[in-house]
Fold:
Amino acid sequence: MMMRIGSPTDVLWSALLNSDELGYYLEENQKRLGQCYSFLTKWLKEQGIPFREGNSGHFLLADFAEIVKRVVAGQDGEITTEQEVELLNRLVDGGVYLGPGTSY
Structure:
């Protein structure tokens, strides 16, 4: 989607794209994203949490439905938005942010 960005953001992006350091930045960013992706997918597999394999960017879709059922709902059945928010709030309290499924 094409849209205008704010002037400060425009200045920062322009400086980055015109920088002699762009090659290093892109290489280092790719390396770090790869390390984080490997760490996260290993952990998700160890926990038995299903997820979709990523192919680019810094996002990963994981299915925490069973965690919500075990930790918050304490039962089987349909998960409510309130129960999902409860789990997300617990994670934020522990220093972890996950975007809610309702956002996607």
User: Anything to note?
Assistant: Residues 64-104 form one domain.
